[in-house]
Structure formats: structure tokens, C-alpha cells
Amino acid sequence: DVKVTQSSRYLVKRTGEKVFLECVQDMDHENMFWYRQDPGLGLRLIYFSYDVKMKEKGDIPEGYSVSREKKERFSLILESASTNQTSMYLCASSLSGRAREQYFGPGTRLTVT
Amino acid sequence: QKEVEQNSGPLSVPEGAIASLNCTYSDRGSQSFFWYRQYSGKSPELIMFIYSNGDKEDGRFTAQLNKASQYVSLLIRDSQPSDSATYLCAVLRVDSGGYQKVTFGIGTKLQVIP
After folding, report:
1. Measured between CB atoms, which of A33, A58, A90 is closest to B43?
2. Do A104 and B92 touch (CB under 8 A)?
């Protein structure tokens, strides 16, 4: 079974802090994604990566950066957390190919106070 | 116009009935279409994907795709209370940078009434 793990289920940070969210997958997937999910807005893509050291902006990259130094690990960084970044953050991975089924991690509920 | 549109619901159906979930998309070049199920407090999990016009059946689930109408649907036969969840429609498309990206709808909440 594919397993995608995220470093924390719940996280509380203060405004202005630098925040690291880690995601690891164990199935040698090429593609990795970071989403945030908010009520009424659905899942929105923040950043994605199709290869090691490769990253591309998604639909809402502002205020975020990412790092992919190893194939299995994709990190999301909030350089200076703000209250509007309070959200559920979901990491996903997939193989390359047309179907591109994505496997999701359990999510990190981030609260910025 | 949103890239992927779904009615947020809730859609209420009695146990044993057919639940019909609908999704429209705006990009005619979209290539693949997915239905994910998300239980409250959990992450999405794939139910089905389809990329050819017509129907695709898997157990109690049938995905239907009509590319001319830019419409994809999910039918759930013999609905069970355990089917109560939010169903996310997702569409694979190529963005302006040439990258394939998946865009999700906001999801339809389904309630199956015992």
C-alpha cells in the first residue's frame, strides 16, 4: 500500500514564525503536491514537483515555498506565517502517467494565532 | 467561471436509492477525470477515474463522461449510510506552462438517510 505521511496532524504557530511542513512517501512516486483545503473553497494547489529539485507554482503559491531534495520528501515552508494561512494542508503523491491517481497524506491542521 | 464546478449540496438520498453526483469543467482540453471520496476529518481517497467518453463501472459505482458537454458524473447504486461523505470531482489538464495539473471541485456532500 502507498503510504504518505505528514510530520504533524495539528500545529499551532504564531504570526511571523517560519513554519515547516514535511511530507514523505514510500512508493517511489515521481510527483508530489501540496494543497490547502478550506471550507467553501475546496482543495487548492500551492506547489507541485515532478522530479527531485524541481518545483512549480500552483494556483496559490504566495506566502509559501517548497523544497524537494530527495525523491521521497517534499517540504512546504511558510516563510512568515499569517493568520490567513490557517488551514488544512494536504500532501499528495502520484506516479507519472495519464491517470495520475493521487494518494493523500492524513493532513496537517495548521492554526496561526 | 470556475474550472471545475460542483453543487456543494448536501444531497440527501434514502438508503438503497441511486445517488447522482455531477460535475462540469471549463477546459475542453482536459484529459482525465477523477472522483475522490472524503469522509469528515479524513483525507480524500480515489474511487474512480475515467478518460474516455461513456460509462465506467466498478461495483456500485459508475462514472460517466461526456466531453462534448464537458460533464462528468458519478452514480452510486444501492446507496448505504457508509457512503455519506463529500465527493470531490477532479480534472487533469495542461496548464499554460505545459504542466499537467489536477484541479479539484469544492465537493458535493452526500447524506444517505437510513
Report:
1. A90
2. no
Quick one: pLDDT at residue A99?
Answer: 55
Looking at the predicted structure, is the pLDDT value of residue A2 above 70? no
| SS3 category, B58 | strand
Q: Which amino acid is at B18?
A: I
A59: closest chain B residue by CA: B103
Residue B101 pLDDT:
81
Separation in Å, CA A99 to CA A63, A110, B51, B56, B91: 30, 30, 8, 14, 10
CB atoms within 10 A of CB A66: 22
B46 neighbourhood in chain A, CB within 8 Å: 101-103
Instruction: Looking at the complex, report in whole angstroms how far the Cα of residue A79 sits from the nearest Cα belonging to chain B.
Output: 25
* Confidence bin at B29 (pLDDT 50/70/90): confident
- Check CB contact of A40 with chain B, cutoff 8 Å: yes
pLDDT of residue A97: 66
Q: Count CB pairs under 8 A between chains A and B.
A: 53
Rounded Cα distance, A33 and A22, in Å: 12
Which segments of chain B are extended strands (E)?
Answer: 4-5, 11-14, 19-25, 32-38, 45-50, 54-58, 61-66, 71-76, 85-94, 100-104, 108-113
Q: Establish if A43 touches chain B: CB-CB under 8 angstroms.
A: yes
